[in-house]
Amino acid sequence: MSEQAGVLFDFGGTLDADGLPWAARFYAAYRAAGGATEFPAFETLFKVSDRALERLPVIRTLGFRAMTQAQARLLCELVPDGAAVSPERIMERFHADAVAVVTRNRPLLERLRRGSRLGIVSNFTGNLELCLTELGLLEFFGAVADSAVLGVAKPDRRIFTETLDRLGLRPDCTWMIGDNFEADIRPAAALGMKTCWIAPAERRAPAGVALTARIERLSELETILAEAA
Q: Is pTM beyond 0.90 here?
């Protein structure tokens, strides 16, 4: 890859999981803790907990573990059987799974930053840099775009162009790696960026966008980038 090459990443579902969104992973942790609500109802309540999390007065002071603990508690206040489910067990399962994936991905990021400028573009809650610091990831990224800090969220193109400008990158020399097709892939492609969708094999890609690449695990990314160089 050339000196001016760049790689932008989503955070949740991309750097901390192999294409699995937080709702699905919190649900797995909830079921493992004894929860019985079916996923469609749980997912609706998870979105409510997301909005409640964003409104917490202390949210911008919370690191990754504390934030996931706060969300687990909010979820247990919302699900019908929440009183019988331990938020600590939910948090521990979710947190352990995320840390395992982050630990696996850290050497990859170390190698990538030697030849590329790396950034993060994430719809988050104002505390992304704290979370990245706690997870040992912040050092790899020359720019971190947290939607709550910038006041603009994906798929708005401005969050991408702001990050590209901060890194001194052109869209056509930059990849966007993400698990959310509508928030990550479609707007990046519209800007002329190369795109790599991380998703389980059984998930169908929406129509209307020609993907540059698709992977199931972030560890596959190095091969994709090398072949495109």
A: yes
